[in-house]
Structure of Potassium channel domain-containing protein:
Amino acid sequence: LEWDIKGKSRGSLNQVSINFKFLLKTYIQQWPARCLFIFCLPLFLTSSWSLRACNYKATIEHISMLDAMWLFIVTFTTVGYGDLTPTNYCGRNVAGITAMIGLLSTAFLVSVLSQKLKLSRSEKYVHIFVLNMQMLKERKNHAANIIKFIFKLWLLKKKHQPTSNEYIKAQRELVRSMHFNQQLKLGQKKLVDSCIGIPELVVIQRQTNDQTCENTQTLAIMKLKMNKIEEQLGEMNHAITNIQNTLHLLLNRISQ
């Protein structure tokens, strides 16, 4: 009861209703393979028995349980070899429902596998780092080729061969190296952009908020110091005014 009250209070604060749907999503998220197995095993047994109960042979006998299981498997996996088929509307309805559930289960299995095969943050960082190093090495090679072809064009121009085949070939290689270098530069920028996800944005936002709070506190302290300086300047101005008045009185007495 205490856990139930705490859970409901937390859910109401977060505007989340803690019900069977929420618990089902939680269990599927934590144990997808176990949930799929628990769902498919009773479905396999129930549907196999239903197919056996609905289908008859020409001798008005039920098909065997093994044949019913085989019919369920080929229907559930949407293979459908055609060696066994439902003979009446009841069996066809069961087969249609089984095929629909099989499609949904296949989609669920694909989503679970894609989630399991997805790279983690650290693995993604390592992969992007390796790709970035490869691109950087290729950029250095193309930059060296650019310098080499520019120097080669300069030598050919000095030898008064600006229209030779070698000059045209070197010019073409120079343009190609410059193009590849630009493409690699754009690829590196895309790699950096792909590395930024929701966790990185959250970290950046948190750092920005901390920096904003520090700047706000610094501005408040500076404002207090400015107010103190203004008060001190006012006191100094008042003191200077008093000194001036005193000097005027002394000068007046001396002049008298």
